[in-house]
Amino acid sequence: MDKRLRIAFIGAGKVGCSLARYLGESGAADVAGFFSRSESSAREAVEFAGGEAFMTLAEVAWAADVVFVTTPDGAIREVAEELAACGADLDGKIVVHCSGATSSEALAACRNAGACVASMHPLYAVSSRFDCWQELGRAWFSLEGDEIAVRALEALLDRLGNKHGRIDAAQKTRYHAAAVMASNLVVGLYDMAAGELARCGLDRAEAEAALAALFLGNAQHIAADGVEASLTGPAARGDQATIDGHLACLDGRDRQVYELLTEELFEIAARRK
Fold first, then answer.
1. Which strands sit side by side in the sheet containing 66-69, from one edge to the other?
2. How large is the angle between the packed helices 14-26 and 39-49, nearest 10 degrees?
3. Res 103 pLDDT > 90
4. pTM
């Protein structure tokens, strides 16, 4: 990539603000600015990440080489249609959305208007509008879409030092389900574990805090060494008596979840042999 791209954002929420600040601070791209349905949100984003607050979609398109659509998933297709009809020339532009669950086909209207389209999703839980941008350096990004757009985004991520990979657009829903398993569903599992620990006599806050070192240590080991090398506990040892004891004291959904996940652990243990 010979020159720094000028980037603009439609949507000034958590992902838009975080990605804009990350890209701008790194020097990998120049932030042209933000458009939002809420003018105050756009101005807050500009104050945080730079650029200017645009009043129209046409201004966004004229100002940027790459337009990121960082709206809620349900609005992406509508925004793409409005951008395609805004009166600005999209020929040679790249339009990207950052949804994990939606394919780049949601931007088809912009492709029909001359742009190249893609999706670029950070496999990372962006939980804060103004605090997560410094964490994006650790994120792996998935890419899919038109070849020209994907290659440009690959070059951008290479400049940043982020790992990335291409996925099949038809598998976007499965990809997002996998992300939910590793992120959101883990929160539910942790909550179940804290609930069982609280039944042992700890108060709820103490139970959550007590599990933290165990949880974080295991997560770090998985990230560094992989699933198979990180498996410990009764399933890894083939200790059915201990597992049966656990199942006997658990009930309801906690028992069902324990039983299902233990079956998965037995399969992981079998792969190690």
1. 52-53, 29-35, 5-10, 66-69, 94-97, 116-122, 141-145, 164-166
2. 30
3. yes
4. 0.90
